[in-house]
Amino acid sequence: MVEFWEALGVMLISTLKHTLVGVPTGFAAGFGMLEVILYTAIGGVAGVFFFMYFASSAKKAYLWFLKKRGITPRKFTRTNRFIVRIKQRFGLYGLAFITPPLISVPVGAIIAATIYKNKTRAFAFLVGGVLFWSVIGSCIVGPIAKLIAGN
Asked: pLDDT-based confidence at 1, cuts 50/70/90?
């Protein structure tokens, strides 16, 4: 039963911060490489699904909240410029590649949902990025975790 809760914890962490936090947490919980890949992939895909398909309503609620307070959202921020630069240079491929390790899964999914019209295609690319980084992150962190544990 304890293993179930640990696996659920790894999945929940992976929905928010996938590669840099979720993968090391899986190894810290004592899971093997295949289990870490599986749990972080499930958590990441669940995060992409949740945040991508609920992003439009969350954005509408946020804009409504700002409007009610009399606040005009800034159009040109450092983050917005970074997002536009990624979209122009790399497109959906680049966004899917940098979402799990650099920007968090919620931020990447919300950006993809608001920028790209074809949500199915954007979802597929983000899931591909999550799966890729689950495997790569586990292959990088796994041997380091074994070295630290002394096995």
From this structure: confident
Is the per-residue pLDDT at 47 higher than 90? yes
Whether 66 and 58 have beta carbons less than 8 Å apart is answered as no
Query: Which domain range does residue 117 map to?
Result: 2-149
- In total, how many domains does the chain have? 1
Q: 3-state SS of the chain?
A: CHHHHHHHHHHHHHHHCHHHHHHHHHHHCCCCHHHHHHHHHHHHHHHHHHHHHCHHHHHHHHHHHHHHHCCCCCCCCHHHHHHHHHHHHCHHHHHHHHCCCCCCHHHHHHHHHHHCCCHHHHHHHHHHHHHHHHHHHHHHHHHHHHHHHCC
| Among 20, 93, 14, 3, CA closest to 49 | 14
Tell me the pLDDT tens digit for each residue of 98-141: 989 988 899 889 888 888 889 999 999 999 999 999 999 999 98
